[in-house]
Amino acid sequence: MRSGTVEKKVGRWWSTNANGSVVFFVRFGWATIEFEKGNAGISVPSMEKLPGVVDTLIEAVRVGEPDSQLASIAADAKKKIAKKPTKKAA
What is the distance, to the nearest Å, from the Cα of residue 74 to the centroid of all Cα atoms in its chain? Predict the structure, then answer.
């Protein structure tokens, strides 16, 4: 077994608009979680307000609010993996 660290590229989970507002996205695997139907991002007036939003999301996760949505995303991912054809050994 190897030990050590491996550097991984981690993308930002937010984008900044021209007016200084921030849109924060939460991802689970490759999917972006929608907290409202059709809204994949959470709009925040400024970067300074973002930590409060993150704290609110952490509390929501602790009480299990997004569990059903995460389970649905995981089930969809399993279906996609199951549909992939397997490679046969030559």
Answer: 12
Supply the range of the domain harboring residue 76.
14-83
Number of domains in the chain: 1
Rounded to 5°, the CA angle 6-80-85 comes to 95
Q: Please report which helix (H) or strand (E) contains residue 55, including its range.
A: helix 50-62
8 A C-beta contact, residue 44 and residue 57: no
Q: What pLDDT, on a 0 to 100 scale, did the predictor assign at position 45?
A: 93
In a domain, 49, yes or no: yes
Which tokens go with 64? 């299990």
The predicted model scores a pTM of 0.60
- Backbone phi, psi, residue 18, to 5°: -60, -30
